[in-house]
Amino acid sequence: MRRRGDPLPEFDRTLFGKQYGALDDADVAQILSDKGLYGDGPPRWRRAPWAQDAIDKRIAAVERLHRFSQKNLRAVGVAMVLEKCLPALPCMSGGCPECCRGFQRWWISAIKKLIQQVVAGASVSRNGTGVEIIVLNWVMPDGQAPLGGLGGVDIAALLEKCQKALIASGVVVFAALAVDTSVNDLPKDHRCGPAIFWQVHLGGVLCVTDREKL
Length: 214
Fold this sequence. Notes:
The chain is α+β, with helices and mostly antiparallel strands. The protein contains 5 helices and 3 strands. It has a 3-stranded antiparallel sheet with strand order 1-3-2. Helix 2 (51-67) packs antiparallel against helix 3. It is globular. It starts with 24 loop residues before the first helix and ends in a 6-residue tail after the last strand.
């Protein structure tokens, strides 16, 4: 086991030349330029969506957006973006099932390699490696917003706060996190209900040396 004070495992701590920070559009474009991500080769995992599943969902999304175009003119613009998406020229939209699937497949491959690298670099013994892989879902009060007010949440400030907290803990070897949102509809019998609001989540995979200190 890794003893307190021992150095962390040595591994490449950078991604696209960045030690800390979010992927930008150029990074995503580089990732999705790999046409293999849109196929059905590795990686595969239990219940992983197939390429045709994503194609069907994209087509269905385009049809649905056109149906709502009379009520929301912005739906037409999104529909046009999704209609033109091709593996050779990905639209990179967060609303595109094909691009989201491609990014998911890249993410799983990248994290798998990183975990293998970390574990291989750790001091392996019969008692373990001294590092632990955990899943985190981080929900904060300042990530809440009323319906129609999600744009008022300062995502950059939330990310910076989380980043500083993880680094300050001194136990995080690496963190691969992403922003997600959900609509929470709390019933009357809930201690905080009735209420309906947007909630920003920060979730992903962490490699830590001591989960109790997080």
